[in-house]
Amino acid sequence: MSDFSNQEKSGLYKAIYTRRDVRSHFVPKPIDDEVLARILNAAHHAPSVGFSQPWNFILIRDPKTKSLVKESFEQEKIRSSEQVDEQKKEKYLSLKLQGIMESDINICITYDPSRFGPFVIGRSSIPETGIYSVCCAVQNLWLAARSEQIGVGWVSILSNEALKQILGLPEHIVPVAYLCLGHVNEFAEKPDLETANWLPRLELKDVVYFETWGQTHSPAWNKIHDLVRTNLDYAFK
């Protein structure tokens, strides 16, 4: 395969830096089937432990199904609010954290630990790599959708048991991600929770260590040490 051109690389980084978790900008326009197929195929080409490809994609448009899922969200949001400090609880409850009914399509992405039998290369020492593989599919889907101008929102304030019942999942199937997909009127400049001052964006320099945990500088890493302290994404915004 040929190398990526500078234009192609720029497009990839642009998708990464402008990807957003969309909750409140969906518009009532259906996603074209060919676009949806491309997005799903990109997700299906994600890396997976032992090439196990342990995902399934459940596509949902039925308003009745969406409504049942939203009921679970509302219940879980209230329940989870009890874990929030009183000073932030009101703000938490006011946040728009899902677009279940507004988005054109909901997709539940699941994990099947039984696919290709009980032994999967690379999973025996770290069983969670199966779940990690499904998360890679989610990221592929998200970036492909962004390149197609389709917004995606991950709804994680849900009961997995409720999802299993609503969607008729077999006992051994694990729901990993419930996503809302649709056309949007804009992609926000910043993530919603950053704009709402819920949490700040950490700088790259604050999450990079050298050789061992907590070591923030090493003579062998001088150049990268300096580079991670600069704004590397400016050229692709």
Overall description:
One of its GO terms (molecular function) is 5,6-dimethylbenzimidazole synthase activity. Keywords: Flavoprotein, FMN, NAD, NADP, Nucleotide-binding, Oxidoreductase. The protein is α+β, with helices and mostly antiparallel strands and 237 residues long. It folds into two domains: 6-199, 3-Layer(aba) Sandwich (NADH Oxidase), CATH 3.40.109; 202-237, no CATH class. 38% of the residues lie in helices and 12% in strands. The protein is built from eight helices and four strands, in the order H-H-E-H-H-E-H-E-H-E-H-H. It has helices at 6-18, 33-44, 63-81, 86-94, 129-147, 160-167, 192-195, 222-227, and strands at residues 55-60, 105-111, 150-154, 174-183. It has a four-stranded antiparallel β-sheet, sandwiched between helices. The longest helix has 19 residues, at 63-81. It is globular, with a radius of gyration of 20 Å.
In short:
By secondary structure, this protein is α+β, with helices and mostly antiparallel strands.
Tell me the layout of helices and strands.
Layout: H1 6-18, H2 33-44, E1 55-60, H3 63-81, H4 86-94, E2 105-111, H5 129-147, E3 150-154, H6 160-167, E4 174-183, H7 192-195, H8 222-227
Antiparallel strand pairs: 1-2, 2-4, 3-4
Helix pairs in contact: 1-5, 2-5, 3-6
**Major sheet, described briefly?**
4 strands, antiparallel
CATH superfamily annotation of the largest domain: NADH Oxidase
Number of helices: 8
Mean pLDDT: 94
| Strand order of the biggest β-sheet | 1-2-4-3
Count of domain modules: 2
Question: SS-based structural class?
Answer: alpha+beta
Which CATH architecture of the largest domain is right?
3-Layer(aba) Sandwich
Using only C-alpha atoms, the radius of gyration works out to 20 Å
GO molecular function: 5,6-dimethylbenzimidazole synthase activity; nucleotide binding
Protein name: 5,6-dimethylbenzimidazole synthase
Domain Nitroreductase: 16-183
Organism: Candidatus Nitrosotenuis uzonensis
